[in-house]
Amino acid sequence: MSAKKMIPNRPVSEVMSKNVLTISEDDSIGTALRIFEEKDYNSLPVVREGTLVGMIAKLDLLKAISHADTKLHPGPLDLENETVKDFMRSASVSIKPDDDLRSAAAYMVEFRLRALPVVKAGRVVGILSEGDIMDNLVSE
C-alpha cells in the first residue's frame, strides 16, 4: 500500500523562510554571483528602497554570462559594472503571508518558479521555496 502525500491547508507564513536575503537592483551581477555561490540559493528578491521590484535567478546570470562576447553582448561581461536591474525579472508573481500554501504551490507550478517572494505592504517578509513545500507535505 503506497502512502499518498498532499500539501497541507496552511498559511504560507507558517512554512516560508523568514530571514530573507535580498539584493538591490543597483548591485553588480558579480555581487549576485558571489551570494549564489556562498549561500547556495537559486534566486534572490530584488529590492528598490526595500520594496520588491523583481527576482534574479542563477539561470538569469548563466544566460548573461553565456551571451557575453557574442552579437547580443559584444565583448566580455564586466561582472562588477553590470547591474542586477539589467538581468533581473520584474516581480510579477508574489504571495502574501496569509495566502494558502496550496495556492502558492499552484503558482509555482504554473509559472515554473523555484521560489516565490512573500510580500506584505510591498516589503519582502519571506520567501517560499519548492523545498519548503516539499518539506511540509503530509500523508493522507
Topology:
Blueprint: E1 5-6, E2 23-24, H1 29-39, E3 43-48, E4 51-57, H2 58-66, E5 89-90, H3 101-110, E6 115-120, E7 123-129, H4 130-135, E8 138-139
Parallel strand pairs: 2-3
Antiparallel strand pairs: 1-8, 3-4, 4-5, 6-7
Number of helices: 4
Task: Report Rg.
Answer: 17 Å
Main sheet, how many strands, which sense, barrel? 4 strands, mixed
Q: Can you tell me the CATH class?
A: Alpha Beta
Instruction: Assign the structural class, choosing from mainly alpha, mainly beta, alpha/beta, alpha+beta, or little secondary structure.
Output: alpha+beta
By CATH, the superfamily comes out as CBS-domain
Secondary structure: helix percent = 25-40%
Per the CATH scheme, the topology name is: CBS-domain
What's the quick description here?
The chain has 140 residues and is an alpha+beta fold.
Describe this structure in words.
This protein has 140 residues and is α+β, with helices and mostly antiparallel strands. The chain has a single domain (8-139), classed as CBS-domain. 26% of the residues lie in helices and 24% in strands. It contains four helices and eight strands. The chain has a four-stranded mixed β-sheet with strand order 2-3-4-5. Strands 1-8 form a two-stranded antiparallel ribbon. A two-stranded antiparallel ribbon has the order 6-7. It is elongated, with a radius of gyration of 17 Å. It starts with a strand and ends with a strand. 25% of the residues are buried. The mean pLDDT is 87.
